[in-house]
Specification:
about 35% strand; 7 strands; Aminopeptidase; 5 helices; 7-stranded mixed sheet; alpha+beta
């Protein structure tokens, strides 16, 4: 696997991934459909506390990492990952998160990493729990999808817990 900062040349891939209503968008808080031009503008307008990183399996792009609210003073950030549907269920997300968390804790010196996940995304929640994330809060009935209201779960992982679980 290799990682590369997202730039305007990745806009088509990001649109394809984010505009997939059945497999991706229904698990995201922001369901806005994007054009390639919107994606290019969005990438170039990201604040310095955010980063988008494209994930390659060696040759092909397979996913997009989201880092938001990067706070070097308090040593924490929010993470997210979107993987192409055809790559799901094959351990790709686990490998990416393992590399990402090692990087965040070892090299960026983060103390904690957190994420938000819709309660209907059971597969992702199981992965986060395997990685050591624990629920630390909920926004009740916060997301409306497919005629139902879902909680938005906040999960966190501390550096020491990650390394305890890893060893």
């Amino acid at each position: 696997m290799r990682f590369e900062p997202a730039n305007e040349s990745h806009a088509e891939f990001i649109c394809e991934l984010r505009n997939n209503l059945e497999e991706t968008t229904r698990f995201l808080a922001n369901t806005q459909i994007h054009s390639i031009d919107n994606c290019k503008e969005w990438i170039s307008s990201l604040p310095s506390s955010s980063e988008r990183i494209v994930v390659y399996d060696g040759i092909n792009i397979v996913g997009l990492i989201r880092l938001d609210n990067i706070d070097f003073i308090n040593q924490n950030c929010c993470v997210g990952l979107d993987i192409l549907p055809k790559e799901r269920g094959r351990g790709c997300s686990k490998r990416v998160y393992s590399l990402l968390l090692d990087y965040l804790f070892n090299y960026l010196n983060m103390y904690s990493v957190w994420l938000e996940v819709i309660a209907n995304n059971v597969v992702a929640i199981k992965l986060y729990e395997k990685l050591g994330f624990k629920e630390c809060g909920r926004k009740h009935n916060f997301i409306y999808r497919d005629g139902e209201r879902w909680d938005y779960i906040v999960m966190e992982l501390f550096r020491e817990e990650y390394f305890e679980k890893k060893n």
